[in-house]
Amino acid sequence: MPSHEQIRDRIAQLRDEINYHNYRYYILDDPEISDSEYDRLLRELQDLEQQYPELITPDSPTQRVGATPLESFAEVKHRIPMLSLGNAFSDEEVLDFDRRARERLGVDVIEYAVEPKLDGLAISLRYEEGVLVQAGTRGDGTTGEDVTLNVRTIETIPLRLVGHDYPTVLEVRGEIIMDRAGFEKLNQSRREQGEKEFVNPRNAAAGSLRQLDPRITASRPLSFFSYGIGEVTEARLPDRHSAIIKKLQSWGLRINPESRVVKGVQGCLEYYRWIQDKRAALAYEIDGVVYKVDKIAQQEQLGFVARAPRWAIAHKFPAQEEMTEIEAIDVQVGRTGALTPVARLKPVFVGGVTVSNATLHNQDEINRLDVRVGDTVIVRRAGDVIPQIVSVVKSRRKGRPRKFKIPAHCPVCGSATERLEGDAKTFCTGGLFCEAQRKEMIKHFASRRAMDIEGLGDKLVEQLVDNKLVNDPADLYALTEAQLCGLERMAEKSAQNILAALDKSKDTSLARFIYALGIHNVGETTAQTLAQHFGSLDALMAADEESLQAVPDIGPIVARSIVTFFAQPHNREVIEKLLAAGLHWPDVEVKSAHELPLKGKTFVLTGTLTRMTRNEAKAALQALGAKVSGSVSKKTDYVVVGENPGSKAAKAEQLGVEVLTESMLAQLLGKSA
Ligand code: D41
């Protein structure tokens, strides 16, 4: 049985070790031990403290989270006021600031300590005998709120300082922030819980710190950077701000790793641009940089005006958020048919540019924001990203504007729009006809796996549409040699080749034709299944959702897409034009499921096939009812091995799966070897 004294020693030792490892981990960002070793130390301490509660002290690393909520916050008086900081919004204002300071000091060049300006909450931490005894918000600079219990839950704030040479009383000033990752995670979980999201990390940090129940604060990802000092007793501190900050770090406080010392105002401006470039890569949000005269003697000489030091200034980045009004909400149709609502804004200068549009993404985003025409909104433009609407200022809403709904018809072509389950986007269904999608649809129609029109590449399709020679895929078949030769960089020979390719493409298959139509959610495999099952275009066009869903592998989403597509008169018109142009295909013999000879068999293809492409082999196998899979397993029935097969052939052997050569496959498919 260890003596009480031995227990006390062990507890003290554990606390020292844990504090040291906290310092390595949170302050130096350079841990010495693994998480599990750390957990062991912490658990041993917790166990001992549970057995001997009389030995628990408030500065023990186990005592971060108190369990009793407060009724309200007490006041904290700052004996040394928390100063405010002047702002500069341009290089000129910074040059003025520097010139005035140099004149007062009578020097040519001032050395400045420079650092990012964090967008969080200013706080003052009071340590007595190295123990955190009080934490107060800035408030009006002289009186703030006592948030000690909440601040104790922040891991980057030590409950006890490291080392021995700290002053008896030390007030540390700094900023409490929530980094971007923590903010996103918090908001995601609030979204999932149906709670209101925070608008930005600053509000999230403020909201988290102003919780009366410290257990809530403890659950929020807050952190801290120190940037200055308040009251300090009986200590000889270094004679430069930069050195004092380093001293704080040696006592276990986190300081900003981007801070530097620069010479003169040009050094400040260079630093500003450097940080501006780095801004997006920082883990937390900043709204500018702070310049501070580095020498304490010079700071004292310069003194204060009102509450702001003459020796420091914040150089702010252009605001990234501004208020403006929504004049209209338009809906744009993208090349894929996706409908995107766009807010037209009363122009506003934000993030360094004038912004008059902001994307609203989709209907869910509109619902989340509850944004309506006429609303006053907060617009945000950060870095080079598209301007976003952060929130609606509901108190400014006039009258009762209508909720905004993405229209049921495409604003470009008038076809019905559809939004499928599990998809945030709404799409236009006028694929073959819609001007917005024209080029993409025609490119798809002509592509190798669809109508396979050789020589009709993307560039040519764009030229044809731009010159208004082609509006829909059927127009391709009406092109003349003269029209083609009129295009830039089009020789007579190439024009003839294209016309020949067009002619050749008319002889196609039902599956290819269905795929070429570009129906949403109908890929090559689905097109084959449909051709196989319905046997004719008429039968497919006449099918309703129910009969479509009866087809193997066709679910409600695909069925809905098909029905909606054929319900568009425009799409039917284009199909009629195509048939009138002479497109044709051999009759498909409709086989019911039990007639398919390879029904229920799973194939894997590996290696290079010489007589057909892998896709052709796959299509042919599927047409006979087989499933074609990408990996070999015990469920595989046959592995088809081409030239230079990979590991799949070996795997087949290992599992005892039957192996077919390419000529065996050809026989199986009924082709002569
Ligand atoms: O990052 C900051 N928000 C920041 C704020 C900073 N890096 N340095 C600061 N330095 C000071 C002085 C020069 C007065 C010590 C500050 C602030 N003040 C400050 N924050 C809020 C009011 C003043």
Task: Give a written overview of the molecule.
There is one protein chain. The protein has 673 residues and is of the alpha+beta class. Strands 14, 15, 16, 17, 18, 19 and 20 form a seven-stranded antiparallel β-sheet that branches. Strand 19 (417-418) and strand 20 (426-428) form a beta hairpin. The radius of gyration is 36 Å and the shape is elongated. The model has no long low-confidence stretch (mean pLDDT 90). Bound molecules: ligand D41. Ligand D41 is lined by residues 83-85, 115, 117-118, 122, 138, 175, 227-228, 290, 292, 309, 312.
Search tags:
alpha+beta, elongated, five-stranded mixed beta sheet, D-amino Acid Aminotransferase, Chain A, domain 1, 673 residues, OB fold (Dihydrolipoamide Acetyltransferase, E2P), seven-stranded antiparallel beta sheet, Helix Hairpins, 5 domains
- Summed over residues and divided by their number, the pLDDT gives a mean of 90
In CATH, the architecture of the largest domain is 2-Layer Sandwich
Count of helices? 25
Main sheet, how many strands, which sense, barrel?
A: 7 strands, antiparallel
Number of domains: 5
Strand portion: 15-25%
* Ligand roster: ligand D41
Kindly name the structural category. Answer: alpha+beta
CATH topology of the largest domain: D-amino Acid Aminotransferase, Chain A, domain 1
Annotated CATH homologous superfamily of the largest domain = DNA ligase/mRNA capping enzyme
Distance between the termini: 87 Å
Cα Rg: 36 Å
Number of E strands: 24
Question: For the record, what CATH class of the largest domain applies?
Answer: Alpha Beta
User: What low-confidence regions span 5 or more consecutive residues with pLDDT below 50?
Assistant: none
Helix residue percentage: 25-40%
Outline:
elongated
